[in-house]
Amino acid sequence: MEQLIQALASAAQTAAGVTGEQLGVSLPSLFEQPEDSAVGDLALPCFRLAKALRKSPAVIAADLAETIVLPDGVARAEAVNGYLNFFVDPAYYAGRVGAILQNPDFGTRHQGAGKTMVIDYSSPNIAKRFHVGHLGTTVIGNAIKNLHAFCGYRCVGINYLGDWGTQFGKLIVAYKKWSSADRVAERGIEELVDIYVRFSDESEKEPSLNDEARAAFAELERGNEEYLAIWRYFKEISLREYMKTYELLGIEFDSFDGESFFTDKMPAIVEELREKGLLVQDDGAWIVDLAPYGMPPALILKRDGSTLYPTRDIAAAVWRKKEYDFDKCIYVTSAGQSLHFAQWFKVVELMGYDWADRLVHVPYGTMSVGGEKLASRTGNVILLDDLFAEAISKAEAIMEEKNASLPNRHETAVAVGTGAVIFNALSGSRIKDTNFTWENALSFDGNTGPYVQYTYARASSVLRRAACPDADAAAGYVPAPDETALIKTLLRFPARVDAALCEYEPSIISRYVLDVCAAYNVFYHNCPILRSSGAEQAFRLRLTAAARQIIGKSLDLLTIRRTEEI
Ligand code: ARG
């Protein structure tokens, strides 16, 4: 489509006698693709030309319709209400099927060639359960990473584990009083959560426990071997549990350098802030004043000299810039942390780092369960383990009923169950708040992951029965409207990928792939494939292969597994 737009833009330029430069806009960017193809396949709105040509848009469109020399592939042009609408030759679309099939990477414009992106996502706080609240950052983050990798970026995925802070003083005290290595080995994170809750309860009655915890954390920071060993154990137990979920989803990280990794890198940052005159004392604590930028101050050092979340993020960003030399560094967290990121991004800018504008915060809406805030203490929380286990067993039950002879049934159930949950999490714009319901997360009907996987399997099944022939076999075939509609949808893929990449918005892909599936299913029902013959059959098989390629690529981008058979 892009080549056609280029050709039309230059034809329009010649006919109108005005260049994009004179108009202050690139001519190809003016072209639109009308939703309703009865209006036309492409449209040039003539409003921007009116001033330069001193004619009304309607007159310009009518004149252009008369004078424009249409490039190959465009059958006719029609002027309607200031728009010049173009009708593309169905034969042109037929030719584009080959272009898709020839290019397994159709969709990428290699936007990131030679560039590096770092993405900080998932990043749970250790010793805490992995719950639906983490689903967003995990699947949105991975989809954004996939999109960048597809577009040629070198990607570094970082799981910035929350593995440092005063809570570990509390946990160490609680562990020594009420738990043991064996109990933790047996009960995993649950044990750590329980003793943490017990600590909170008991410290209300016995405030001196808090002093013990503070002292324990100070010891930990000083490098007390016994405490370090306990802390490492907490980390190992937590990671073991998180890894199961990551493996289930097929998500891999390049680094697990969490908050603790940056403890020894912070004094230098604090020093640098001081030298650059950015630190001011406020009630004993050290802060960077951000009032001129309409934000509350960034807290750098507490009164007792201990560092804070923003301090660690600044140190981590400076370190990552040196280590990876990124073109951009992306952080995916809930919108609740937006102010935190805006604040410390500003501090990095004030430090004089010109790459401050390469730091990108990608927020997503908060999730509630049953209309209430997620809170592990009140039990209003759904663990990711449970969620995926439930989804997989539901998928397995459905398959048992509908297709008991399916080979690899369990594997397919895993693909479909996880696919349902992931697709649901990626289906709306990320910034929208969501309310978790089991019905939605486990829905397999309508616009869901399983529907997309099912359509992919349908196309795969056609191609198992008849192989995809080469272009010659389909030569001369002129596609019918349901076929051109599908091709047009497929050709939108590069633009959709680009939009998803630029807007950090995986839902652009999830919505798009639903359009592809809908168009494929209309085609499948209205245009017999295996019961046709000759060039017609060859063309339909090729179109099936092209649709399968793009549905498959979209699933890959969303971290949803392809299912060859359901
Ligand atoms: N551990 C944090 C949390 O669970 C998320 C970390 C996000 N990344 C960062 N660099 N601050 O809320």
The amount of beta strand, in percent, is 5-15%
Gyration radius, to the nearest Å? 28 Å
Sum up the overall morphology in one term: globular
Bound molecules: arginine
Q: Helicity range of the residues?
A: 40-55%
Number of distinct helices: 23
Structural class: alpha/beta
Read across the widest sheet, the strand sequence of neighbours is 5-4-9-10
Ranges where pLDDT stays below 50 over 5 or more residues in a row are none
Distance between the amino and carboxyl termini: 34 Å
**What average pLDDT do the residues reach?**
95
What's the multimeric state? single chain
User: What composes the largest sheet?
Assistant: 4 strands, parallel
Number of strands: 13
Task: Please explain how this structure is put together.
With 566 residues, this protein is an alpha/beta fold. 54% of the residues lie in helices and 11% in strands. It has 23 helices and 13 strands. The protein has helices spanning 2-16, 20-23, 27-30, 50-53, 57-67, 90-102, 135-150, 167-178, 181-187, 189-205, 208-222, 225-249, 266-275, 309-324, 338-350, 384-402, 409-425, 438-441, 449-465, 481-491, 493-503, 507-526, 534-557, and strands spanning 42-45, 74-80, 83-88, 116-120, 154-158, 279-282, 285-288, 298-301, 328-334, 359-364, 367-369, 372-373, 434-436. The strands form 4 sheets. It has a 4-stranded parallel β-sheet with strand order 5-4-9-10, sandwiched between helices. Helix 8 packs across helix 10 and helix 16 crosses helix 17. The longest helix has 25 residues, at 225-249. It is globular, with a radius of gyration of 28 Å. It starts with a helix and ends in a 9-residue tail after the last helix. The model has no long low-confidence stretch (mean pLDDT 95).
